[in-house]
Design a protein that fits this description.
The protein has a four-stranded parallel beta sheet with strand order 5-4-9-10, sandwiched between helices. Helix 18 crosses helix 20. About 55% of the residues lie in helices and about 10% in strands. It has three domains: about 80 residues, 2-Layer Sandwich (Gyrase A, domain 2); about 200 residues, Rossmann fold, CATH 3.40.50; about 140 residues, Isoleucyl-tRNA Synthetase, Domain 1 (Orthogonal Bundle), CATH 1.10.730. With about 575 residues, it is an alpha/beta fold. The longest helix has 25 residues. The structure holds arginine (ARG). Arginine binds next to loops.
């Protein structure tokens, strides 16, 4: 597709000797409204060079520029405003649509390079609660965004399946646990044990010692300890996978913390050889004072391993296995310090891959009736939230069937598509760092800026295409698309690829959420204002081709958010 921005840069570069390409590129702006053009170039800074009034410079330049890509180049308030030639733009869009069909806007700057995306990273024997939706859904979207740009992604679920808490859990199970109860209702039962032992440990140092002993046994591969740990892991994963299936989110690797436990002696040995650690109260640490960070504890005084050290092993493993272009960690903002320490530690230890690591933090989600806390034992399970959303949508669909008198096909599947889609959409609607309150009303509304609204527009276009007997091979003429509503859609479509690139660069899926809402709204405006199925065959087919392109881009956009686009709703 023609890159109009680049065209302007080329033109200005040849017209203005005093500025180089990079400078021009940096100066080129997108005006606040299309009335001021599609692009604007400020000329203030040229006044000094030319010793001329900026307005005069702008109008002289405007006069000189003659390019078929722009219908007008105008001088306004010392800005040079460029107006794209709309029929060239429309032709470009429809041509791309015909060439790439459902892959409209897809490019391959990734050239197959690897990108590791770690997300979800749930903890064994602990609830998969509503708070986990953030990392799970944001991470999955980031993975999809990089895939779209031609990267090869590796989706990693770094399971929290190791650490001293497993000593506590084994100890609790030995004291109070019942195998049958756990088999029946794994996570709540295991979590109950975990909450109970935490209380006891606080009051009874002897039990604390017992827990430590059990963890040591686990580290030393004691048969009973390992058997129990494996069992906890297995029953928990089975539960988690049920939720991942409903979410339609899947991973390439479940190498969690335990996977790295036997790689730790090697790491510690390497760090000792590199002579970057010092002793501190019986522990071995790396001093990070020069980074303004607390020291990284590599080996604890009791010889047991810790979270940070396992992350060093995991980072090294990901680097050596995948040589990623970037290695992304989608983890809550509460762990920002941890990731700063991780990067600084890697740098201190002269692991030169430290800068491929990117922590992508996010804020917290809470429910209307209060915050979420696992430690207090008050938990909202993600599975329950998803099921409730599906149920509520089911009620809405039942109601619709009643009022319309028409039966919906695959109602159950549709309810899941809409319910889960609605939750993901709301989750991805704002910048990720913002805390937000989960709002049932808003999430499941079919109007306004919601998932169901966008899905509905997609379904509406599908039925329109059927009604109009749309065929890709019909004769069309892009020049016929001249109405404002059509041009607005064409402009949106033109932006799609850039929006995806920006989302990738900033790790912000919400760019795409906002984009599909805008496209859907633009479409609805067009749909309400314009007769699409007109007598004139060519005009009708051209308009349908535009609709078809919108449908494909909405479907791609939703797919980048991990949301399905139903044909009927
Ligand atoms: N399982 C951890 C938690 O729930 C998150 C893991 C973050 N990833 C990492 N590489 N440390 O807090």
């Amino acid at each position: 597709m023609i890159n109009f921005r680049e065209e302007i840069i080329k033109i200005l570069d040849s017209e203005i000797e005093e500025l180089d390409k990079e400078k021009i590129e940096g100066m080129l702006e997108t005006p606040p409204s299309y009335e001021l053009g599609d692009f604007a170039f400020p000329v203030f800074s040229l006044a000094k060079i030319y010793r001329k009034n900026p307005a005069i410079i702008a109008s002289e330049l405007a006069e000189k520029i003659d390019s078929k890509y722009f219908e007008r180049v105008e001088n306004k308030n010392a800005y040079l405003n460029f107006y794209i030639n709309k029929s060239i733009l429309a032709e470009e869009i429809l041509k791309e649509s015909m060439d790439k069909d459902t892959h409209f806007g897809k490019t391959c700057e990734g050239k197959g390079q690897n990108v590791c995306v770690e997300y979800s990273s749930t903890n064994i024997a602990k609830p998969f609660h509503i708070g986990h939706i953030r990392s799970t859904v944001i991470g999955d979207s980031i993975k999809r965004i990089y895939e779209f740009l031609g990267f090869n992604t590796i989706a990693i679920n770094y399971l929290g399946d190791y650490g001293t808490q497993f000593g506590m859990l084994i100890c609790a199970y030995k004291k109070w646990g019942n195998r049958e109860d756990i088999e029946k209702n794994p996570i709540p039962e295991l979590f109950k044990l975990y909450v109970k032992i935490n209380k006891v440990v606080d009051e009874d140092p002897a039990v604390k010692e017992e827990c430590r002993e059990w963890f040591k046994k686990l580290e030393e591969q004691d048969e009973e300890a390992v058997e129990l740990w494996k069992w906890f892991r297995e029953v928990s994963l089975k539960e988690f996978n049920r939720v991942y299936d409903v979410l339609d989110i899947h991973f390439d690797s479940y190498n969690g913390e335990s996977y790295y436990s036997d790689k730790l002696p090697g790491i510690i040995e390497e760090l000792r050889e590199k002579d970057v650690m010092e002793e501190s109260q019986g522990a071995e640490i790396i001093n990070l004072e020069k980074y303004d960070l607390p020291p990284a504890i590599i080996v604890k005084s009791d010889g047991t391993s810790i979270y940070l050290t396992r992350d060093i092993a995991a980072a090294k493993d990901r680097h050596e296995t995948f040589h990623p272009y970037v290695s992304i960690y989608v983890v809550g903002a509460q762990q920002s310090l941890h990731f700063k320490q991780l990067k600084a530690t890697l740098k201190e230890a002269k692991y030169d891959f430290y800068d491929e690591i990117v922590h992508v933090p996010f804020g917290m989600v809470s429910l209307e009736d209060g915050t979420l806390s696992t430690r207090k034992g008050k938990v909202v399970y993600l599975e329950d939230v998803l099921n409730k959303a599906i149920e509520k949508v089911m009620e809405i669909l039942d109601e619709r069937e009643k009022t319309s008198g028409q039966k919906l096909e695959n109602k159950e599947e549709l309810a899941q598509t809409i319910g889960v889609g609605a939750i993901k959409f709301q989750e991805l609607f704002n910048g990720r760092i913002k805390n937000y309150v989960f709002d049932w009303e808003k999430t499941l509304s079919f109007e306004g800026e919601t998932g169901p609204y966008v899905q509905y527009v997609h379904a509406r276009i599908s039925s329109l295409l059927k009604k109009g007997n749309f065929d890709k091979n019909n004769d069309i003429d892009a020049k016929l698309l001249t109405e404002d509503a059509e041009i607005d859609i064409i402009r949106s479509l033109y932006n799609f690829n850039q929006v995806v690139k920006d989302a990738a660069e900033k790790y912000e899926p919400y760019f795409i959420t906002r984009y599909v809402v805008e496209l859907a709204k633009n479409f609805n405006k067009f749909y309400n204002q314009t007769q699409i199925l007109v007598e004139d065959e060519k005009l009708k087919n051209t308009r349908l081709m535009l609709c078809y392109t919108v449908k494909n881009v909405i479907a791609s956009g939703l797919d980048l958010l991990g949301i399905k686009a139903p044909e009927k709703m």
